[in-house]
Input
Amino acid sequence: MPLLEHSKIRIAIVVSHPIQYWIPLYRELSRHLQVEVLFCHEVTPSEQATAGFGVEFEWDIPLLEGYQFKWIANVAKDPGIHHYRGINTPELSKLLTKENYDIVLVNGWNYLSYHQALFYGRINGLPVLCRGDSQAGITNSKIKKLLKRIIYPIALRQYSGHLYPGERNKEYLLSHGVKPERLFKVAHFVDTDYFAARARQRSAIRAASQIRKDFGIPAAATVFMFVGKFIGKKRPLLFIEAIHMLNRSTEEKTVYGILVGDGPLLPDLQTVSEDNGSTSTIRFAGFQNQSQLPAYYLAADCLVLPSDGSETWGLVVNEAMACGTPAVVSNQAGCAPDMIREGITGYRFDPNDPSGLVRAMSLFLARCDENTANSLSEISASHSVATATSQLLQAISKSVNNY
Output
C-alpha cells in the first residue's frame, strides 16, 4: 500500500463539545489534512454554569470557524457533559468508515460516545488514536485499583496509539501496559500566539495597571493570582490562607491575592477572605472570558495553581506563561514536571504540607533570576499550537501508514 501524503489523509476528530483550547489546533491541522470534527453535544450557557464556572456564559472567541465540523445527534436520555452516558451518539456507526475517513482521533474515554467511536472505528478497519491526560496517584478504593489493574491494560490496547501531553500521562499509560511504540508526544497547548500578542498590546498593559488601581493595590505590592473554577479540586481556599499567612509574617501587608473565576465555593471564600476585616488583601475579580484574561495575567506577578491530583494538567499555567507570568504550582498537578523549571519559571510545592505553598510563595518573593523571561518563552513555545500540530501530524502519518 503506498504511503499517504498529509494532504490526502482524512481524519475524524470525535469530541464531546466545542472546547475553546482545541479550536486553534483544528484550524492549524486543517492546513495540512482533510479534517472533520464531529461534535457530539451542544453545551448551553446554563451547562457551563453547572459545570463549575458558576455563571452562565458563552466564550467570546469564535469556536466554529476555520475548519470543517458536523453536529452528531445525541440521543442520551439525560444529555450533558456531567456524566458518562450524557453523550450517546450511535450515528457514529454510519460515519466512521473507510469510505469517509482514514483515521479517527478520540478526545478521551470519559463519555459513551468516545467508546462508540473506538468500537465503530475498529470494526470498520480504521486506526483510532486516543488523546487523554490521566495521571497516576489519584486516590482510589482498593476495589477500584484492582479493577483498573485488570481492565485498563486490555482497554488501552484497543487504541492504535495514545497521544500523551506530558510526563505524568506517559508514566500513567506505561504503568497500564501501553507499549512505548504506541505512545506519541503531543504537547498540552493553548493559543500562545494569541495570549502573547494580547499581552503586548498597549490596551492590555493599561488594563493591567487599571486592574491593580481599581482593587486598591499599591504599585510596590506583589500580586499572586488564582485563575479557575471555585471548586474543591482547585483548592482556592488554600490560596487565600497562604496570602493571609504571608501577610501575618510581615508588618506591612504587601502581598495581595486576586481570584479570577466563580463557582459554588464563592460564598465560603468570601467569608474566609474577610477574616482579617478591613485589612484583607484578597480581591475577587469574577469570571473573565478569554479576551480579558491577558490583562489579568499581566496584572499579576505570579500565578498560583494549588490543585490536587485530579488536576490532570492546569492550562492556566500555559496561558500565564504565554503572557510572561511565572507560576507556583502544586506538584500534584499534571503540568508541574513539564512547565516548572524550579526557581526560573516558578516553584513547585507539596499541597499535603500545610506550609508548602507559603514557602514556595516566599521563595518567589525573594527570587531574582534574569533567565526567567527567556525560559518562559521557551516553555511557552514548546506548548504552542504549532508545536502540538507538528507532533500530531507525525503521530497521524505514522499511524495511518503503519496500520
